[in-house]
Write a structure and sequence with these properties.
Chain B: InterPro entries: DUF6230. The complex is a heterodimer of chains A (126) and B (200). Chain A is mainly alpha-helical and 126 residues long. Chain A has helices at residues 9-15, 19-42, 47-69, 74-91, 93-97, 99-113, 120-125; strands at 3-4, 114-118. In chain B, strands 3, 4, 5, 6, 7, 8 and 11 form a 7-stranded antiparallel beta sheet that branches. In chain B, strands 9-10 form a two-stranded antiparallel sheet.
């Protein structure tokens, strides 16, 4: 596994990718799972909503991590998350009681709105 | 392996506000349409919850009903009646839930529903009362591990069930789809809610 160490450290890593987008997508996915988890504590199964919450939640987390790891795929993960956020409204406890929907909708919009910029030193090499 | 990749070091980014608005607008538009459809009964939603609520309904009908005693709660501490209903419909229902918030105190949410139907409904209830209940195609069974060692549990079932003036306190529920019509939500400070039999 290759680990790229940046001289700028944490701020440079954060600014080099749509950090807020990935964070919101992952948090929204976890929120969907948490809402379903509460139900799982009581019932042995939670039916369609439970299965959809786990599936959608996992996909949101994957989309968030993809946005962080590969910013070039932000359009794919952003559009996917936007569509899935609407699906979560009808399939997963009203989008995790609306909070999960809001987090993932804003996260997907942030992923689509992120524009990479390169410093002059990098442009010379290109 | 540690790699120092110089050209990548200088990459940064910014968020375009215009793009953000353009990306968020269709999602919010779609969500508004879905929520409006849900409130109008045109769109079904899947739901599973553990909210402590009290439900009063003027009339309840269900098909493919089976109920058996069980335990619910963390660690299975509370006795409950686990009921599975293939298809259920409630008329003139009133749902109340009281939450005790840190600063505000007790806040009661009252949801009045003209008609709601659910499929694949599973409910764990602690208490249920009804003014009258009508059963058709009823059955009663006691599952046994072997002929001489009954488990002690039983299952009551019916092809069709209808009840009036029903009050129940579900501890947890899940439904494949829920469709509701005529939904009105009201928030009140303090405890209380719908009186039994006064759903609307």
């Amino acid at each position: 596994m290759t680990i790229a160490i940046r001289p700028g450290g944490w701020p440079a890593w954060r600014q080099g990718r749509p950090f807020a987008a990935g964070l919101l997508l992952a948090l929204g996915g976890l929120e969907l799972i948490c809402v379903s988890w509460v139900g799982l504590g009581f019932l042995r199964f939670t039916g369609t909503a439970g299965a959809a919450s786990w599936t959608l939640g996992a996909l949101f987390v994957v989309a968030g991590v993809t946005t962080w790891r590969t910013p070039a795929l932000r359009y794919f993960s952003g559009v996917l998350a936007a569509v899935l956020s609407l699906v979560s409204l009808v399939a997963a406890n009203l989008g995790g009681l609306l909070l999960g929907f809001l987090l993932t909708a804003v996260g997907s919009a942030l992923a689509l709105a992120w524009i990479p910029q390169q410093a002059p030193a990098a442009r010379k090499e290109a | 392996m540690i790699k120092n990749n110089d050209p990548v070091l200088t990459r940064t980014g910014r968020t375009s506000r215009l793009r953000f608005a353009l990306a968020l607008a269709p999602v919010l538009l779609g969500a508004s349409a879905l929520l409006a459809g849900t409130a109008a009964g045109a769109v079904s939603v899947a739901f599973a919850g553990e909210v402590p609520v009290t439900v009063h309904a003027a009339r309840v009908t269900g098909s493919g009903v089976s109920a058996s005693p069980g335990a619910s709660g963390r660690g299975g501490l509370l006795p409950a009646l686990a009921t599975r209903v293939e298809r259920a419909t409630v008329h003139d229902a009133c749902v109340t839930s009281t939450a005790h918030l840190p600063v505000v105190g007790a806040v009661t949410a009252v949801v009045r529903i003209e008609r709601a139907s659910a499929t694949g409904l599973a409910v764990e209830t602690g208490k249920t009362t009804a003014g009258s209940v009508k059963l058709s195609g009823a059955r009663f069974s006691t599952p046994q591990r072997s002929l001489d060692r009954p488990t002690g549990l039983f299952t009551v079932g019916a092809q069709k069930v209808s009840g009036s003036r029903v009050t129940t306190q579900p501890r947890a529920f899940t439904a494949g789809t829920i469709t509701s019509e005529g939904v009105a939500i009201e928030l009140r400070q303090g405890e209380g809610g719908c009186a039994p039999g006064v759903a609307r």
